[in-house]
């Protein structure tokens, strides 16, 4: 293997990500709490160091390095593709990303049981779902069913096929 030093002669640019940040991502359903979804969502914007899914709050907390806190978009979309007989169904969820300097991030309570802890009920009055007239318990049941179905597919090895894939994309708002 031939090793060459970095050079701008080949059109390369070097950018150092030295700013430690904490990112709280909210807006996606519990069955999407999977480390595999984080890289495609954020890899263009930061280098993920640690992550924690906090189901009781519906948040994923990430510690990362980036150029600046402004490098992380505030809004985006995360979607899943499911094969149908006559095409593909795309299910898209809006996500919100709140970025803090690592040293200034608010503390979050640790969730007993970690990743597999059940989703806890909250007394939240105003939420996007309730404003649209959706019953939260019905949505939680649907999310749980979808999660169980996804786990069965994953165990069967079906996710490795091209007809069932996950896609993620961001939509920037400046």
Describe it.
By secondary structure, the protein is an alpha+beta fold. It has one domain (16-107, 124-169): Alpha-Beta Plaits (2-Layer Sandwich). It is 17% helix and 30% strand. It has 3 helices and 6 strands, in the order βαββββααβ. Strands 2-3-1-5-4-6 form a 6-stranded antiparallel sheet. A hairpin with a 2-residue loop joins strand 4 (75-84) and strand 5. Residues 113-132 and 158-174 have low confidence and may be disordered.
Question: Outline of this structure?
Answer:
The protein is of the alpha+beta class and 174 residues long.
SSE map:
Layout: E1 19-26, H1 38-42, E2 47-54, E3 59-66, E4 75-84, E5 87-101, H2 128-131, H3 136-156, E6 166-169
CATH hierarchy class name: Alpha Beta
Give the CA-CA distance, first to last residue.
44 Å
- What proportion of the residues is helical, as a percent range? 10-25%
Strand order of the largest sheet: 2-3-1-5-4-6
- List the total number of helices: 3
Shape estimate: globular
The biggest beta sheet is recorded as: 6 strands, antiparallel
| Order of SSEs | EHEEEEHHE
How many structural domains in the coordinates?
A: 1
Rounded mean pLDDT score: 73
Radius of gyration: 19 Å
């Amino acid at each position: 293997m031939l090793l060459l030093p970095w050079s701008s002669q080949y059109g390369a640019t070097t950018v150092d990500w030295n700013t430690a940040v904490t990112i709280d991502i909210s807006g996606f359903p519990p069955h999407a709490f999977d480390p595999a979804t984080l890289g495609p969502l954020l890899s263009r914007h930061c280098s993920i160091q640690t992550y924690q899914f906090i189901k009781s709050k519906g948040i994923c907390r990430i510690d990362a390095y980036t150029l600046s806190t402004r490098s992380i978009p505030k809004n985006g979309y995360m979607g899943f593709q499911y094969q149908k007989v006559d095409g593909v169904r795309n299910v898209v969820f809006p996500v919100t990303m709140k970025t803090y300097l690592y040293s200034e991030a608010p503390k979050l309570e640790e969730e007993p049981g970690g990743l597999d802890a059940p989703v806890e009920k909250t007394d939240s009055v105003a939420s996007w779902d309730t404003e649209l007239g959706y019953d939260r318990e019905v949505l939680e049941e649907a999310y749980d069913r979808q999660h169980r179905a996804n786990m069965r597919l994953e165990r069967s090895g079906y996710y490795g096929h091209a007809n069932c894939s996950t896609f993620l994309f961001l939509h920037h708002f400046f």
